[in-house]
Amino acid sequence: MNPNTDWIAAVTFDADGLIPAIAQDAKSGAILMVAWMNAEALSETVASRRAVYWSRSRKRLWRKGEESGHVQTVSEIRLDCDGDVILLKVEQQGGIACHTGRESCFFRRLDGQANDARWTITDPVLKDPKLIYK
Amino acid sequence: MNPNTDWIAAVTFDADGLIPAIAQDAKSGAILMVAWMNAEALSETVASRRAVYWSRSRKRLWRKGEESGHVQTVSEIRLDCDGDVILLKVEQQGGIACHTGRESCFFRRLDGQANDARWTITDPVLKDPKLIYK
């Protein structure tokens, strides 16, 4: 029996064979992070229901949480109209998605008007990264 | 008086001078769409508080809603830890972000297990695109 891979034909990978994937907290709706997937990472995510990305810096599969323990359990996978962005709804183990020890990677907010705008860090560090990555 | 552009120095644009921007409904938390911005689009978004993207197909600024009327009023702008993804919290005029006439571009959900997975359209068309783009 051959696995049905028609579903992956609807996914448009870029020139590097990658597609951005948004991880959204399934309960709160908070956007936790954006990372990249290749076809293998996406297929493994579908099969294992744990988020697997492609690390562009390390050039290898990155099973989210493999070092930190901050695994993402995937409850839903969505695709946008152009087929070139993936959305994962996840349960974030440990409540920390960001390597800085914060819940979300989007911890900076632009404050002020156009002529005096600046980024404000709005979210607390929940765990010291030194304790996350030993 | 020179405008302060230090904030834009924290933004990492890719080799094409672009950064992906996620539009999230500020109230419901629904992810509406992902599009691209160049520095000009981002600056204009900050100044006008209306989402302005860079259309990769048309190779010009795309003031969201310029044809459809489906303007996005921006209440918050966030940046991720690597500085290479923008998150906009928006009020979506008309309740439709997608060119297909749906609320969100992420209207396909992957159902089934790995060996029989398929995309299911889960969201209704709220307005016929023929009536949106005349």
Automatic annotation (TrEMBL), chains A, B:
Q: State how the cofactor is bound.
A: Binds 1 zinc ion per subunit. Binds 1 Mg(2+) ion per subunit.
Residues annotated as binding Zn(2+) are C81, C98, C105
Q: Which GO terms describe its cellular component?
A: cytoplasm
**Listed GO molecular functions?**
magnesium ion binding; phosphoribosyl-AMP cyclohydrolase activity; phosphoribosyl-ATP diphosphatase activity; zinc ion binding
Return the InterPro entries for the record.
PRA-CH, PRib_AMP_CycHydrolase_dom, PRib_AMP_CycHydrolase_sf
Question: Which Pfam family, any one, appears in the UniProt record?
Answer: PRA-CH
- Protein EC: 3.5.4.19
Where is it located? Cytoplasm
- What cofactors does this protein use? Zn(2+); Mg(2+)
Which residue spans adopt a coiled-coil conformation according to this UniProt entry?
none
Keywords (alphabetical) are:
Amino-acid biosynthesis, Cytoplasm, Histidine biosynthesis, Hydrolase, Magnesium, Metal-binding, Zinc
Q: What class of enzyme is it?
A: hydrolase
The protein's job, in short, is:
Catalyzes the hydrolysis of the adenine ring of phosphoribosyl-AMP.
Q: Which family does it belong to?
A: In the N-terminal section; belongs to the PRA-CH family.
Q: Which NCBIfam families match?
A: PRK00051.1
Q: What is this protein called?
A: Phosphoribosyl-AMP cyclohydrolase
Give the gene symbol: hisI
